[in-house]
Structure formats: structure tokens, C-alpha cells
Protein: Phosphate-specific transport system accessory protein PhoU
Organism: Microbacterium alkaliflavum
Amino acid sequence: MREVFHQSLEDVQSRLVEISELVTTAIEKATTAFGTSDVTLAEEVIDADAIIDEKAIELDELAIEILARQSPVARDLRVVVSALRISASLERMGDIAEHIAQLTRMRFPERAIPKGLKSTFTQMGQLDVEVARKLTELLRTQDLEIAEELRNTDDKIDDLHVSVFEKVLSDSWQGETAATVDATLASRYHERFADHAVSISKKVAYLATGDWTTDSDDTFVAHGVTSTS
Amino acid sequence: MREVFHQSLEDVQSRLVEISELVTTAIEKATTAFGTSDVTLAEEVIDADAIIDEKAIELDELAIEILARQSPVARDLRVVVSALRISASLERMGDIAEHIAQLTRMRFPERAIPKGLKSTFTQMGQLDVEVARKLTELLRTQDLEIAEELRNTDDKIDDLHVSVFEKVLSDSWQGETAATVDATLASRYHERFADHAVSISKKVAYLATGDWTTDSDDTFVAHGVTSTS
């Protein structure tokens, strides 16, 4: 009985890693498609999001079944409860990758990245991919040092997010209104993607420490202040 | 023992209602502050968000304690698992109300609502408040007809969200870049607030039906297409 149970817990963990890998592929493709206006690649991301959603539901069902049948306590209970929360965040990360792909498709055959922001969004995209890879590694190993690295990468993304607003609000910005809207939404998506990863990393830390935190990793960027300072 | 248990479940439900009431107050104040450039009111919302976060953590701790001590099954288990998920969404709704307040504070003493969008954002604000009130009622009564009403209100908010982009991307738009950024972010916040309520309403439906869904209520708005059609 205990063996079956630990088999189930391992199954939960390996499914989280699997979903995180799918999310990593999604953000890799989405940011590449965004950077190269590759609408075929964008479509792939959009189509594949349903798989992430399905895997997340399956994982939730498994977690609830474990709660019902095995009545875990202590650390085992924390593993299962965390899995429920982590799957919700992974699913949101998949949605955000999809949104970046949708921006690409919407602008096609025009470029989705507004002029003057190519290098910024290339960096943000690469950092989002880095975040997704680190997250997968963290879920695989539970190594909290990776959580720390992940937060550092998130800080870099936040800085780039601020720099998008600085650029857009500077005198040199010559983008049309549509470019301003695109830059605003795309930057927000890239930033939120990483926020969710940080939020997951805190849930992994909870497994180690028992300290619960909320999802409040969404720092407000005072985008209007930087331009006038 | 069973009596103590049902007491706990009622406690879970009444805490969800309490947090939803706090979120309702937050969005009422935030949208009012946004519409009237009332920075004092905005500060109140920003300060009060910590209380929502705290209440959400307390509720999660209670839910986890119930799982550990009572090992609920069947519907009782669904109540507890749903509560964990609903508290996460309520907490996010509080964050979004805070973001609307932060936009207000950032622009003060200027108006946060860009010219030409006053009536649109007034309507969106009122509908967000309506959504929050319906959500509280839904959590109190579990009446799924309210869930249906809530989705209808969300549809109206989605339409207004699209209309913001139509306005901003029309030839008549004379807003500066900062106004475009503000309109984009503010509209996205108002829309996401309602999305989370819809997502919660599905979790309440799960209590009745046992059908689990994911959080994918975030429809991508093709903001670039509408302007050229």
C-alpha cells in the first residue's frame, strides 16, 4: 500500500516535470516565432496549448484521487497540495506562451516586434526560455539553489520590462499606436511568464520549509514615472 | 467528530465569502479612484491588499489542516480542494484591483483615464464591481444561475475591452503614447479581473458536478484586426 502510494507521488512529480517541459517548448517556439514572424511556428504553439491544458487537468485529477484514497499527511500532503497549485501556474504559463504566439499571428505578415525593440524582446524571450528550463530543473531536482537563480533571471526580465516602457515613452519613440499597444502587451506577457515561474519556485520551497506564500509576484511597474525622470 | 468537521467546512466557505467581500470593496474603491483620480482612495486599496493576501494564506492553511486531520472524501474533498484554488484566484483579483489603484496613483494629479475613454472605463469599472458582487453571492449561495449571469457580465466586459483597442487604434485617437500604454494596461486589468471571477464560477460548478476545468478563461483579443476591418 505504501509502495503504491509513493509510486503515485513520484507520478505526480514526473507529470509536473513533463508539463514544465511542454511549457518550455511552448515558450521557445513562441518567442522564436515572435522574433522571426514565423506564423507556422506560432500556430504550432497555439495548437499545442490544448495538450498542456489536458495534462494539467489529468494531473489535478490524479492529485485529488491521491487525496481521496491515500489521505496523505505531513510532507506527502504538501507535495500533493503544491502539485495542484503548481499545475495551475504551469497552465497559465502555457496560456501566456500562446498569447505571444497569437500576437505574432495577428500581425503577420507584418513584424510583431515594434521597431526599436527587437533586441530588448530578443533578450526577454531568451530569458523567459531560461526561466522555463530552470523551472523544469527545479521541479526535477527540488534544488532550491535553482530557485534563487530563477529569481535573479526574473529580476533581469523585470528590468527589461521597465526598459520597454522607457523606450516607448521616450522622445525618440516613433512607433504608431498599434506598435505601442503591441509593445505594452508583449512586454507584460513576457514579464508575467517569469512571475509565474517565481511563484512556482516558492511553492517548491514550501515543500522544503512548510511556509506557504500567496501568488503575489506581480510587481506593478510604474511605467509613467521613468520617462519623466 | 463529524460535527467539528462540518463546522470546519462551513468555516472554509464563510472565509471565501469574506475574502470575496474584501475583493469587492477593493474593486469598488479602485475603479472609483481610477475614475475620479482620487489618490487617497487609491492608497487605501493598495494598503488593504495585504489583508486580502493574509486572509488567503489563512484560508489555505485551514484547508490544508482539514486535509491532514479529517481526510475528507467525495464532495467534502472537492469543497476543500476548490477552496484552495478559489482563494488563489481571489487573491489575484485583489492584486488586479491594486494595479488599477496603482495606475491612478502613478498618474496623479493627472487623470489616469485617457481622454475619450472615460465612459468606456466607467462602464468597465461598474461591470467589474457587478462581477465581484455576483461572485460573492455565488460563493454564499452556490446558486449556479448566478454563475451564468456572471459569464454574461464578463462577455460585456470583453466587448468593452475590444472597444478600447478599436478606439485607441482609430484615426480619431489623439492620445499620447503614455495614454495608449495606460489604456492598454487598464483595459487588460479590468478584463482579467472578470476572467478570474469566471474561473472561480467554474470551480463552484465543479462542486456541483465533479467536472474539473482549467483556468483558461483568458481569451486573446485580436486588437490589431478590429481597427482595419
About this structure: Chain A has one domain: 2-209. Chain A has six helices and no strands. The radius of gyration of chain A is 19 Å. Helices of chain A lie at 2-36, 39-70, 74-107, 118-141, 144-168, 177-209.
